[in-house]
Amino acid sequence: MELKYDWKTIKEYEDILFQEFEGIARISINRPRVHNAFRPQTVNEMIDAMHYCRESPDVRVIVFTGEGGKAFCSGGDQSVRGHGGYVGEDTVPRLNVLDLQKMIRSIPKPVMAAVAGWAIGGGHVLHVVCDLSIAAENARFGQTGPKVGSFDGGFGASYLARCVGQKKAREIWYLCDQYDAQEALDMGLVNKVVPLEGLEEEYVSWGRKMIKRSPMALRMLKSAFNAELDGQAGIQELAGNATLLYYLSDEAKEGKEAFLEKRDPDFEKYPKFP
Ligand code: S0N
Predict the structure, then answer these.
(1) Minimal-distance CA residue to ligand 1 atom 27
(2) Residue of the CA atom closest to atom 25 of ligand 1
(3) What was the pLDDT predicted at 1?
(4) 47-69 pLDDT per residue, tens
(5) Residue 247 marked in a binding site
(6) Arithmetic mean of pLDDT, 147-159
(7) β-bridge pairing 81-82 and 85-87
(8) CA-to-CA distance for 84 and 92, rounded, in angstroms?
(9) Any idea what the Cα angle at residue 29 is, between residues 24 and 31, rounded to 5°?
(10) Does the beta carbon of 103 lie inside 6 Å of ligand 1?
């Protein structure tokens, strides 16, 4: 599908497009022949793009999507599924999509999924772990694990259950049924449904809105939402952000300066809040 906005390529890859427009990074799986199934290389490319997104102050919001309008992602490429994982050129079986899931969750910037067509299996989990999901009217969602001999017992089960509730999450996994965009909206699996032709405009509009919001407030909120669910790893993220804010304060700087000047720190002059 022709894009409406003037997206500039950040870096060329084989399996994905990685583009930028007005501070929005667009990571799009470009394997439409297999409904954008991912092989280890696809995932490695997305991980590389996410490293860029994390480091670049110019990237404020990320959107994951898929080329072709018929699929967001159909999960792990079954044709390269080997003994113990998905096999790439190095012949090593991997489940590297789990690393990507963690990156999506921990990057301190909002990540959206823009789902047109199929979001199935590991491709479904990919949209689930994003902060926000916008679906085109042709989107179809589902897990296939127990049908094709796999399962995702991590975010794919527990975070899905947090989104749609335990009963519905168990139904999705146990039955391997497919759900249309309206059903997904009704069960809280996606934030909004729009016509396919309006999907790009919608996620750009959401991106523009979030770019106007305080980056630090969004960062703190994301880690706060994660902390409630992610145990010690979640608390570590939230606490890391608290440390970042503390480092910005004069009180924290006094500690460092006193050490370098070989004197006792004077913390008395800093405000004591009730
Ligand atoms: C998406 C479906 C329902 C679409 O059906 P439709 O429209 O009838 O199209 P098809 O004719 O089936 O597909 C068109 C072409 O695309 C190929 N294709 C589609 N999906 C895949 C795929 N996942 N891998 C490889 N090829 C795919 C078709 O073969 C067809 O090609 P041609 O024309 O040449 O025959 C339907 O396509 C479908 O059901 N697809 C499979 C969905 C699926 O089961 N995905 C895998 C699910 N599992 C995972 O994703 C695991 C992810 C993972 O890495 C993981 C993570 C955490 C923990 C564990 C795991 C784990 O691997 O176990």
Answers:
(1) 34
(2) 77
(3) 79
(4) 999 999 999 999 999 999 999 99
(5) yes
(6) 97
(7) antiparallel
(8) 9
(9) 155
(10) no
Instruction: Give me the residues paired with residue 82 across strands.
Output: 85
Residue 18 φ then ψ, to 5°:
-130, 110
- Could you give the CA distance from residue 108 to residue 62 in angstroms, rounded to a whole number? 11
97 has pLDDT over 90: yes
Hey, what's the torsion of the CAs at 197, 44, 50, 136, to 10 degrees? 20
Spatial distance between the Cα atoms of 171 and 124, rounded to a whole number of angstroms: 15
Ligand 1 centroid to Cα of residue 206, in Å, is 30
* CA dist list (Å): 13 to 31, 51, 156, 222: 12, 14, 27, 29
For ligand 1, say whether the CB of 79 is within 6 Å of any of its atoms. yes
Using alpha carbons, select from 46, 75, 77, 80 the residue that is nearest to residue 63.
Answer: 46
Question: Residue with structure tokens 């809105």?
Answer: 209
Calculate the CA dihedral of residues 143, 87, 67, 65 and round it to 10 degrees: 60
8 A C-beta contact, residue 51 and residue 78: no
What share of the chain in percent tops pLDDT 70?
Answer: 100
Please give the Cα distance from 117 to 136 (Å, whole number). Answer: 7
222 pLDDT higher than 90? yes
- The H or E element spanning position 153 is none
Is ipTM beyond 0.90?
yes
Q: How far apart are CA 90 and CA 133, in angstroms?
A: 33
pLDDT at 266: 98
What's the predicted TM-score (pTM) here? 0.96
CA of 58 from ligand 1 middle (Å) equals 35
Q: What is the mean pLDDT of residues 161-180?
A: 98
Token pair listed for 44? 């490695």
